[in-house]
Amino acid sequence: MTRLTVALSGDCMATRGALITSDPAAVELRELLRAVDFAFTNLEVVPSGSRGHPVHNAAGGGCLIADPRVIDDIVAAGFTVLGCANNHALDMGVDGLLGTVDLLNARGVPFAGIGADLTAARRPVYVDRPGGSLALISCSSTFLPGQEAAAPSPDTPGRPGLNPLRYTATLDVTAAQMEGLREIDARTGLRARRAEARTLLGFDPALPSAERLVLFGTRFRVADEPGFATECDRTDLDEISQWVREARDRADLVLVSVHSHEPGPTPEEPGEFLRTFAHRSIDAGADIVVGHGPHFLRGVELHRGKPIFYSLGNVVSQIELADHVPAEDYARVAGPRTPGRYFAELTGHGRRLFAPHRRYWESLIPVLTFDDGALVEARLHPIELGFGRPVHRRGRPRMAGPADAERILTSFARLAAPHGATVTVGEARTGELALDVPHRAPDAHRAGHGGYTSLP
Description:
Blueprint: E1 3-7, E2 11-13, H1 24-35, E3 38-43, H2 70-76, E4 81-83, H3 93-107, E5 111-112, E6 114-115, H4 118-122, E7 125-129, E8 132-140, E9 161-162, E10 167-173, H5 175-187, H6 190-193, H7 195-201, E11 212-215, E12 218-222, E13 227-232, H8 234-248, E14 253-259, H9 272-284, E15 288-292, E16 300-303, E17 306-309, E18 314-317, H10 327-330, H11 339-346, E19 362-371, E20 374-384, E21 398-399, H12 402-416, E22 423-425, E23 431-433, E24 438-439, H13 442-446, E25 453-454
Parallel strand pairs: 1-3, 2-3, 2-18, 3-4, 4-5, 8-14, 10-12, 14-15, 15-17
Antiparallel strand pairs: 1-19, 6-9, 7-8, 10-13, 11-12, 16-17, 19-20, 20-21, 20-23, 22-23, 24-25
């Protein structure tokens, strides 16, 4: 029997050293990460130092830039495989992204999700251990236009960037509401301004049909009831699924990482397109889907016996300790142009953004155990990042104490319930994800179809 263990975490925004402190609860976390076969985190910082140039209006608000040495600290903390596709991957532009690629290759750190062209960004990285292998595919739905990697053409090279999971968002409106929007379009002069486009294209690009309208950068369509819907880009969904199937045949375990800030009906719920993507990834052969992006916990779901964590929040959050601040960011606040002063003003001296909200400073580390590819145990280890501490002392993880652990697990159980998953609070500050342990035929799973029956 092949037994493999995987530890998962969310966003790692490391900008300073010694991510694991001398606190016994922090040392305990490091021991947990080092004890598993594979420990995953999402690298949401550009560790390129001076390579590249800052991107104005970086998606997510400001740049996350660090010195290359943070990679050594991340590895020392126990992380062994990194996802790199996220909205900060190109904060230092293409050169910065390629600097990250070169740095991780030079350090021998396995990573996925970014590359010199679309194929390089899409393809899995394979990590081999004495007990078996893991494939990681990393993608992001949150990024600025042009940050997605592109394939070469016969005439031009490919574009370096991240592995994109694009989606479309559509607002459903009633027929009467659509008439109001069309009246706004006509009376404000927007329709007249499209005269040249109509001449060149032969149709009005904002009016693709009688029941659809594109206005203010938003898609509207007529429906019986108002609503909001998101849908995966079909090409991205198919191409990422193709690499999942490829990985299924070349590794013992397949992990898909997806960075998505986009909410569903509430901030704690994932976008509809994200659930579609996660299910499709499992159907194609993934063993785990791990999400991150909103910087707080979302729920967990079991699809065909495989876990989907829609967001694991943060594992390291040192945004306010970043030492590389672009000029456009300095221009947003008054006062001396120093990093400390900038972040103090930006956060209202701890009164706004992440600082005053506890949920951004606590999360979970799931440790999953697989026997011959079947998930047999999912233990949940609550962590906290120092909520309420001074800025230079918060943001580094440690195991949560009993009271915090119980609160985190209780909250996570509430988030999991709508997805049909059950989380129980166990002993020793841990919880468990209740499993309907699957029995599967290996060949059926590798082919990406069925093969599951419940065991008593």
